[in-house]
Amino acid sequence: MAAGDEQAKEKENFRAKMGGALEQRLFYIPSFKIYGGVAGLYDYGPPGCAVKSNLQAFWRQHFVMNESMLEVECPSVTPECVLKASGHVDRFTDLMVNDVVTKDCFRADHLVEENLERMIADPMLAPARRTELEDLLARIEELTAEEMGAAIVDLGIKAPETKNDLTAPYPFNLMFPTQIGPSGAAPGFLRPETAQGIFVNFRDLLYYNGGKLPFAAAQVGQSFRNEISPRAGLLRVREFTQAEIEHFVHPDHKDHARFDEVKDVGLSLFSRDAQLGAVKKPFPMSIGDAVEKGIIANQTLGYFIARTQLFLEKIGINPAKLRFRQHLQHEMAHYAEDCWDAEIESTYGWVECVGLADRSAYDLKAHSVASKVELTAHERFAEPVMEEVLVVEPNKKDMGKAFKKDAKAVTDALQAMCKEDALALGAKLEAEGKATVATEAGEKEILPGMVRIAMETKKISGRQFTPSVIEPSFGIGRIMYCMFEHNFYVRADDEQKTVFKFSPIIAPIKCTIFPLVNDAGMNALAERVSRELAADGISAKLDTTAISVGKRYARTDELGVPFAVTVDHRSLDDDTVTLRERDSCEQVRLKSDQVLALVKKLCAMTTTWEEATKGMERQEQAAAE
Amino acid sequence: MAAGDEQAKEKENFRAKMGGALEQRLFYIPSFKIYGGVAGLYDYGPPGCAVKSNLQAFWRQHFVMNESMLEVECPSVTPECVLKASGHVDRFTDLMVNDVVTKDCFRADHLVEENLERMIADPMLAPARRTELEDLLARIEELTAEEMGAAIVDLGIKAPETKNDLTAPYPFNLMFPTQIGPSGAAPGFLRPETAQGIFVNFRDLLYYNGGKLPFAAAQVGQSFRNEISPRAGLLRVREFTQAEIEHFVHPDHKDHARFDEVKDVGLSLFSRDAQLGAVKKPFPMSIGDAVEKGIIANQTLGYFIARTQLFLEKIGINPAKLRFRQHLQHEMAHYAEDCWDAEIESTYGWVECVGLADRSAYDLKAHSVASKVELTAHERFAEPVMEEVLVVEPNKKDMGKAFKKDAKAVTDALQAMCKEDALALGAKLEAEGKATVATEAGEKEILPGMVRIAMETKKISGRQFTPSVIEPSFGIGRIMYCMFEHNFYVRADDEQKTVFKFSPIIAPIKCTIFPLVNDAGMNALAERVSRELAADGISAKLDTTAISVGKRYARTDELGVPFAVTVDHRSLDDDTVTLRERDSCEQVRLKSDQVLALVKKLCAMTTTWEEATKGMERQEQAAAE
To answer: Does the pLDDT value for residue B537 go beyond 90?
Structure first.
């Protein structure tokens, strides 16, 4: 077996083992399983729900609270006009092909990609053809429908199972369509992202913020994408939780007041140059250096990249498997200034989990045009400035006399002129003694004296402008899945013992409490400890099932519970209990009334296990374990 | 003006004033406002989001944590088969009529209701006709399409504005339709309730719970109802957050282990008898008495009713405006054992905010039939029981000889017989020496000896059964809206000063911190206090805007912030600050390092303001206030 195959096999085994552990303990469940399920839809069971809720709570604390962001909650059901303005109705598509006989649907890029990879793997392939195909593969995401169709013909691709011919590729919109109201006259969609709800509320949010920039708004909620053929388990789903931030900022002032707090954060950067260069590898660099060298466009974007790195590390992402990849020029929307993806390595390869983009003023401008509502901020200059401005001043009396009821149409037409046209008209009037103007009431001839057209110097004390927006956008489910992979392991001494080494911030339950055997005294003490923890907000679970402590430890490891208290025979004599740490399996003995304080400190992560238990009595591990 | 009109006017004024305060401070915003909005869709702005998130967190603590419920999270997008099984595809409808000319849509019951109310209000109405119309009004929700159509004709109802004729009423399904996947072959809907996600996962959840009953599962999430003509603001919306619990229990054992903890909770009960009797008023009673007297069907339902009362009181619902109304027989689904709604009085009248229903085994049975997956629990009898069971034992040899390839059909037909039919057949065989059986292969004549039919006593040690489910279902938005109404008031000394007296559990911000004037020392101290609070998880907001403290207090009152710290000139000398309580406007002076502990205690509601500040130095109120 080739080394590559072996590695692939290993990854598959790991994934199967972990997937089994996750499904077995109901971290997630294929949705509507008793009805055969629906591709791309998953439920979270009790521990999955708890992990997700912890992840979201920590996200809120790390971003929303820490920076006093304005949180909003908008509906999923969205009228067509909003998504027309944002560009989703026209452009949120994937290219699709059908089996001409069965009508089965396939994603064109996936079919071409799979075929290209298989062909390129062939050692007998002619070098010129290989280069050609490799080039095609690199450009796969930017192919037009025509180019994709040509590739399908050129490569002779057929429908995967039937081997029937395929239709030409055509765009399929990924939004779930629906109807709002009973009349059928109000088409709508399920939102494909949470961001639009923030943009349409910009005016109110700016007002709420006292008219001041910069400020950030955030939304956590469900988004929906009707994927053509979902695969890759929890990574490509049809309904998912997004957490998005829109940080509104003056387009000329993208420094960040708190940049200094993060400037030394180290990152693995896979810049455009690094991707296109010979080595094609990310490099380590501090965010301070990256912004200073212009690798990252500005401080605000850099600030959020660094904060994202810190967030991901805290929730248990392995920093060695985390990189920030810059979008290549052709990947970026035409309006974007700079885009980086936080990519996390999993058994499926590098997965885009967070997008960080400087989207300039695109979104606000698009909604402003479509809604005819001004979405701008006001800027008061430090000092008023003198500015040459165009003055178009119709002479009302003469206009009225000459044009009667059409006078307003002529005035409007004159005042709507751009600078160049207005000055040209003025020059013509002066030179030729008359000029023609196209108005809503038809062409009209005007004479000198009817309008004064000139450039004048005026004192300007401020202006309206459209803010830029910097958008960090988190896919909660993808982050969670990668976090599962990075935290899953099998105990060295037993293939059957699987563990999730969740950070205490993330663990679904922080502490389990076991009476060693079913004894009234032990049960009572265990219950007391359990209640004390719960009353202080530490999620605790009492486990009184009549199985060995070793088995109960194994069960708690499968759920990733970091700490376990055991009440044993000695507890009844001296009111001590043991506390076990999940990964080291170490146990210390302490007074039962010290448990709360110690577990609390450990869960707040203000200390380590070694530090916190220094000098405590160590307990021999139970033989059963 | 009649007293009723005056009261209505007063309510309208109150609602307008409060609605203004809510919209002004962005508690909520009509969704997609810059595009003219969409009826029945609302956004929550920053303080609304915070209030909602506090409400949900407290709900989780009060129900999910407190009773170790199993929480799940399922998608909103749901395939048709699931909602076909649950009955929503066929029966989740409202009767609709159209204007025959404009095609405008109206809810038939709303039109009839409005017309009836207007007609009944006419003092000249003949007594017999009045009785007839009042009877119709009382039955409005149970009218069939035909009856509703007859009422429209009888009352001469036309389209509200155009006065055109109306079509006959027809059912309109309230679910938002969509398509799952690209082929168009998989119709789906947005879920109309969160409950179904729990039912379809019953088997896995029971397994997760070690196969033991009772247990409860819970889900908090969005639900969608495509209302025909949404009105009543936040009370009737097209997308809303639901929090539902499904408590699975043995159908014969509906006692609750923790019932004693709530048995003395006092409720206002509007039982079926009270609604149908002469007085038509709710009465006060403890839940213990209500269950004992059989007014509420069982302890588990009673337990959740009491816990709901406690929950609503804690979040600031006025108990004088809270009642539990029992469903009348005709309101209840045919399978339901007993249903109560927690109704909260608002300016819109009594609003159904929580539904509490004993739904028997209906949902699990429906999904079991449709999915062909057994959704049952196993019950092991304390002692094996001897039971008389029917035995139908075909003689394979004789059957094969007599019926050849049809032997199986005959055997199946015999074994599918119910007890009565089988025994009758046995008797006939014995009496007449032959009998005829209808099989899939046609009628067949059988003879004695081909089958043994008898009742026999057997030892049975357990059985499979379908659990009953008791469902408390909370409409988070409705509860929140009523809570807003119950907590809104205007200061006695100033019409313009509006206040929300939110409980500290619910308040969007717990404490604001003001430097009296813009002074470096005051700012620094204010910032220190603010950070200390935030670091301990107390949502705090520093307000350094250059307006008077009085105005800043007013602003903080509008958001319902319960406490405010002011740093003043004296603070710089002796490190004291003042702490103000929102509703009394009382201020005490204390050392700045005592603020955290005091505010924390006040927010945890373990003490009252009077109690906690006893003996502290009182501060004169600022003149500006």
So the answer is: no
Beta bridge partners of B460: B385
Q: What is the ipTM of this complex?
A: 0.88
Average pLDDT over residues B45-54: 96
- The predicted structure's pLDDT at residue B625: 45
Query: Nearest CA of chain A to the CA of B595: how many Å?
Result: 20
In this predicted structure, the answer to whether residue B38 has a pLDDT above a threshold of 60 is yes
Which residues have a Cβ under 8 Å from the Cβ of A204 and sit 6 or more positions away?
A: B26, B29, B33, B45
Residue A451 to residues A387, A394, A398, A426, A461, Cα–Cα distance (Å): 22, 4, 9, 8, 27
Which pLDDT score, from 0 to 100, does residue B3 have? Answer: 65
Tell me the residues of chain A between 324 and 383 that have a Cβ less than 8 Å away from chain B.
Answer: 367, 370-371, 373, 375
Q: At what angle do helices A396-403 and A407-415 cross, to 10 degrees?
A: 130
**DSSP code string of B513-561:** EEESSS-HHHHHHHHHHHHHHHHTT--EEE---SS-HHHHHHHHHHTT-
Give the pLDDT score at B2. Answer: 64
pTM reported for the whole predicted model: 0.89
Q: So what's the pLDDT on residue B79?
A: 97
Long-range contacts: B258-262, Cβ < 8 Å, 24+?
B258/B67, B258/B303, B259/B288, B259/B291, B259/B299, B259/B300, B259/B302, B259/B303, B262/B287, B262/B302, B262/B303, B262/B306, B262/B307, B262/B310
Q: Is A429 on the interface with B (CB under 8 A)?
A: no
Q: Contacts of residue A31 in chain B, CB cutoff 8 Å?
A: 74-75, 197
Band the pLDDT of A3: cuts 50, 70, 90: low
Distance CA(B468)–CA(B214), nearest Å, equals 10
CB pairs under 8 A between A and B: 202
Within a 10 A sphere around the Cβ of A332, how many other Cβ atoms? Answer: 17
Task: Say whether residue B517 is in contact with chain A using an 8 A CB cutoff.
Answer: no
Q: What is the dihedral of CA B353, B357, B361, B365, to 10 degrees?
A: -20
- What letter represents residue B8's amino acid? A
Cα–Cα distance between A139 and A117 in angstroms, integer? 13
Residues of B with Cβ-Cβ distance to A238 under 8 angstroms: 75, 77, 180
**Inter-chain residue contact A183 with B534, CB threshold 8 Å:** no
Chain A nearest CA to B186, separation (Å): 10
pLDDT at A31 over 90: yes
Query: Averaged over B100-127, what is the pLDDT?
Result: 92
pLDDT digits (tens, 9 = 90+) for A507-559: 999 999 999 998 999 999 999 999 899 888 889 999 988 888 889 999 999 99
* Cα–Cα separations (whole angstroms), residue B496 to B7, B14, B21, B347, B492: 22, 13, 10, 21, 10
The secondary structure of B442-498, three-state, reads EEEEECCCCEEEEEEEEEEEEEEECCEEEEEEEEHHHHHHHHHHHHEEECCCCCCCE
Which among B506, B44, B40, B73 has a CA at the least distance from the CA of A219?
B44
In whole angstroms, what is the distance from residue B318 CA to residue B295 CA?
A: 24
pLDDT tens digits, residue range B325-364? 999 888 888 889 999 999 999 999 999 999 999 999 999 9
- Segment holding A504, helix H or strand E: none
DSSP 8-class letter at A622:
P
Residue type for A82, please? Answer: V
Both structure tokens of A97 = 């092909």
A544 CA to chain B: closest CA distance, Å?
12
How far is A462 from A446, CA to CA, in rounded Å? 35
Answer whether A74 touches B (CB < 8 Å). Answer: yes
The 3-state DSSP class for residue B364 equals: helix
Q: Which residues contact A269 (CB under 8 A, 6 or more apart)?
A: A282, A283, A284, A285, A290, A295, A296, A323, A324, A326
Query: Residue A155: what are its φ and ψ, rounded to 5°?
Result: -85, -5
Reduced to 3 states (helix: H, G, I; strand: E, B; else coil), residue B66 is coil
Q: Which of A407-411, B205-209, B554-558, B567-571 has the lowest mean pLDDT?
A: A407-411
